């Protein structure tokens, strides 16, 4: 891209800050690893230990064919749930409920997968649609309440997470529980063969393709359709959008509904492609991770996809890190929190690396609006 | 809190007690059920009330606080570890307050000085608290096999605590008693002192407060940190008054319910306390349902506080007005 084009600087800046934030968080994580290791006793005053830890992380994430497949499999649900949070963000809404939406999506998909008896060609679509529908309802309720009554979506989506958790506990211990004598944990029976996502490569299901398609469709809807334009208008200024004739109630309900749909799809794809059933507690952590992914990806589709790969790699590699160094895999959550802190407060990164302040375009402080969303002119499409 | 809403809460709590009474299995006596409901309600209301008071100081000064959960969680950990190291429960409570105030300082720095979106800042703090306490609880507590220092003993009110049925209300642990004092104290500070007036001024109309010579930034920092210290006491409740161990994510959404109690209570101390009692009663129902053999799946009863939160936030029981400047960073001219 020629440098004289307006927006080019903004675009470089939009990549630089997250990358520096990740690097800084990894450096700080290194300090914590050092403190958890043999400290001054080890090779090179303990720095060898930190290097070994990060190398095992890298090896665990990308070191073999199996590792790469594992990382890819983890990326898929992150892409869906990251897009879910991103889409709501674009509409000025904060969806903290991806975890609950994912839970009910997985429950509905598993139910459709094992209880319905359908020909293979429609069974899989029905399973995925069931997950989408359940997630959309779970998110849409929060959207409707926000739009109609002003109930803050941050609290309602969190409450719906807990309600979804209780519902899952009830259903998986009760009506939907696998009653076979061999089963001792709270989970559904396995779904029918025909309801499963086929493998692209051995061990790698076709959900990867679906994630790519959904990412492109999401990009198209948010940036190239009237609906997406209205969504972004509501996100930038709901009052102005209403004045311009946008049906804000409908658009907000739609935003959290579609957001929930995407999160529900994440759950359905896990059921149809990886676990073939819904198990209590498999979804823990997705809600927080997907918020971090959306923020790190600066609420752009390409950013979300890249951040999903990063988070999947960290989580996959953490197992090897823990195995090699005996440091708890929870270190990843700490690094993740640091990344998020540095991305949210990018002034810290700018100050650390002496970057000049961003253009007025990306920094305009708005009263009460979500500052994490750069009001994007030409440069911010993703 | 309006009178209608107050009566609604009382009716709800009464209905919950009555529900347990009618559904209990016949071999438990009515007096035992009522006593248990009342005592657990008051006990469960403690962290909710403290969380709501924490949010109140913060939001009254114009800083939205969805980080109560994270502040309480990290304070629960700090209180546990310091109490275990020093073998002093009092030191644990103080440590909880310090940790809570420190997390609040981070929230203030992010949202007041750096003007990060306050909801994003709160989310960062929640995620950070979950990550750091989870990591430390496996790396430090489990690895070094740290034993908790035990629980704060109950303080009994003479005579009253021997009464039938209502007796258990008068045998509470220190943080529960302190909570009642803090409700009164917070009311006094917020509505009867100069500092309280300043807090409310910067939360309603910061520009006017600035013109009157009040430092908006300083007042917000102070209010957020006072709130953080109160949330810290609420955190200490979990590891020093409820159970003598630390578990990852043990606050389990109480910080968010506290926020809902704050909203339902109209951002006043007394209102927040009464609303906390309602949520606590719903929670007590869940616990007692299992204990007294109520024939409804416990998970369904367990949804009740969360459903109630949504219903209340949706304004089914009337709307309330938040502080006018909440969520807006103040940019001095």
Description:
The complex is a heterodimer of chains A (382) and B (333). The two termini of chain A are 15 Å apart. Chain A is 69% helix and 1% strand. By secondary structure, chain A is mainly alpha-helical. In chain A, strand 1 (199-201) and strand 2 (204-205) form a beta hairpin. Chain A has one domain (8-380): ABC transporter involved in vitamin B12 uptake, BtuC (Orthogonal Bundle). Chain A has 15 helices and 2 strands. In chain A, strands 1-2 form a two-stranded antiparallel ribbon. By secondary structure, chain B is mostly helical. Chain B has one domain (3-13, 29-147, 169-313): ABC transporter involved in vitamin B12 uptake, BtuC (Orthogonal Bundle). In chain B, strands 1-2 form a two-stranded antiparallel ribbon. In chain B, helix 4 (89-113) runs antiparallel to helix 9. Chain B starts with a helix and ends in a 20-residue tail after the last helix. At the A-B interface, helix 5, helix 6, helix 11 and helix 13 of A face helix 5, helix 10, helix 12 and helix 13 of B.
Which class of secondary structure composition applies to the elements of chain A?
Answer: mainly alpha
The CATH C-level name of chain A is Mainly Alpha
Major sheet characteristics of chain A: 2 strands, antiparallel
Integer-rounded radius of gyration of chain B: 20 Å
Strand content of chain A: under 5%
- The strand line-up of the biggest sheet of chain A is 1-2
**N→C terminal distance of chain B:** 36 Å
Total helical segments of chain B = 13
Instruction: Profile the largest sheet of chain B.
Output: 2 strands, antiparallel
Fraction of residues of chain B in helices? 55-70%
Query: Helix and strand succession of chain A?
Result: HHHHHHEEHHHHHHHHH
Helical coverage of chain A, percent range: 55-70%
Structural class of chain B: mainly alpha
- The CATH topology name of chain A reads ABC transporter involved in vitamin B12 uptake, BtuC
The domain tally of chain A reads 1
Mean pLDDT of chain B: 88
Which descriptor suits the 3D outline of chain A? globular
How many domains of chain B?
Answer: 1
Give the overall pLDDT of chain A as a whole number.
Answer: 86
């Amino acid at each position: 891209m020629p440098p004289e084009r307006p927006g080019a600087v903004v675009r470089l800046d939009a990549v630089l800050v997250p990358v520096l934030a990740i690097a800084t968080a990894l450096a700080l994580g290194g300090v914590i690893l050092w403190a958890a290791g043999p400290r001054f006793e080890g090779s090179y005053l303990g720095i060898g230990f930190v290097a070994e830890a990060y190398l095992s992380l890298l090896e665990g994430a990308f070191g073999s064919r199996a590792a790469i497949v594992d990382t890819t499999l983890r990326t898929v649900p992150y892409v869906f749930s990251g897009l879910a949070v991103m889409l709501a963000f674009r509409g000025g809404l904060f969806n903290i409920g991806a975890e609950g939406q994912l839970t009910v999506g997985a429950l509905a998909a598993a139910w459709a997968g094992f209880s319905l008896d359908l020909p293979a060609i429609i069974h899989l679509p029905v399973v995925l649609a069931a997950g989408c529908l359940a997630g959309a309802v779970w998110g849409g309720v929060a959207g409707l309440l926000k739009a109609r009554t002003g109930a803050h979506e941050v609290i309602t989506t969190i409450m719906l997470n807990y309600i979804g958790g209780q519902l899952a506990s009830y259903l998986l211990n009760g009506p939907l529980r696998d009653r076979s004598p061999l089963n001792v944990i709270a989970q559904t029976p396995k779904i029918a063969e025909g309801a499963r996502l086929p493998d692209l490569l051995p061990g790698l299901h076709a959900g990867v393709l679906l994630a790519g398609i959904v990412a492109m469709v999401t990009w198209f809807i948010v940036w190239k359709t009237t609906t997406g334009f209205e969504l972004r208008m509501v996100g930038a200024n709901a009052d102005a959008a209403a004045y311009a004739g946008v049906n804000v109630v409908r658009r907000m309900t739609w935003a959290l509904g579609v957001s929930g749909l995407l999160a529900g799809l994440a759950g359905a794809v896990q059921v149809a492609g990886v676990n073939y059933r819904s198990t209590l507690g498999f979804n823990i952590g997705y809600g927080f991770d997907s918020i971090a992914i959306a923020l790190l990806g600066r609420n752009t589709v390409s950013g979300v996809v890249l951040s999903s790969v990063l988070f999947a790699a960290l989580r996959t590699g953490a197992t090897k890190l823990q195995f090699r160094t005996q440091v708890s895999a929870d270190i990843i959550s700490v690094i993740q929190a640091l990344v998020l802190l540095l991305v949210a407060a990018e002034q810290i990164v700018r100050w650390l690396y002496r970057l000049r302040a961003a253009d007025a375009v990306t920094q305009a402080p708005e009263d009460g609006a979500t500052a994490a969303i750069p009001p994007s002119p030409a440069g911010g499409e993703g | 809190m309006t009178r209608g809403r107050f009566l609604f809460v009382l009716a709800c709590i009464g209905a919950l007690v009555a529900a347990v009474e009618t559904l209990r299995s016949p071999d438990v006596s009515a007096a035992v059920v009522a006593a248990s409901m009342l005592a657990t309600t008051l006990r469960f209301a403690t962290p909710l009330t403290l969380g709501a008071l924490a949010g109140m100081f913060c939001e009254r000064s114009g800083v939205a606080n969805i980080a109560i959960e994270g502040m309480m969680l990290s304070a629960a950990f700090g209180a546990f570890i310091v109490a275990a190291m020093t073998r002093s429960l009092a030191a644990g409570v103080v440590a909880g307050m310090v940790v809570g105030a420190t997390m609040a300082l981070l929230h203030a720095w992010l949202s007041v000085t750096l003007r990060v979106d306050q909801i994003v800042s709160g989310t960062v703090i929640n995620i950070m608290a979950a990550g750091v306490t989870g990591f430390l609880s496996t790396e430090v507590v489990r690895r070094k096999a740290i034993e908790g220092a035990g629980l704060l003993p109950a303080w009994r009110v003479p005579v009253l605590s021997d009464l039938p049925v209502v007796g258990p209300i008068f045998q509470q642990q220190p943080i529960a008693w302190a909570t009642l004092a803090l409700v009164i104290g917070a009311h006094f500070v917020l509505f009867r002192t100069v500092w309280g007036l300043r807090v409310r001024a910067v939360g309603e109309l910061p520009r006017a407060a600035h013109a009157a010579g009040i430092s908006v930034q300083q007042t917000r920092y102070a209010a957020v940190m006072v709130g953080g210290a109160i949330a810290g006491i609420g955190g200490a409740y979990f590891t020093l008054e409820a159970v003598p161990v630390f578990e990852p994510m043990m606050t389990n959404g109480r910080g968010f319910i506290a926020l809902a109690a704050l909203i339902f209570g109209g951002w006043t101390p007394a209102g927040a306390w009464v609303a906390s009692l309602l949520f606590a009663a719903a929670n007590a129902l869940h616990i007692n349902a299992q204990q007294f053999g109520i024939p409804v799946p416990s998970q369904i009863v367990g949804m009740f506080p969360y459903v109630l939160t949504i219903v209340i936030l949706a304004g089914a029981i009337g709307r309330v007005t938040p502080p006018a400047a909440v969520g807006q960073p103040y940019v001095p001219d």
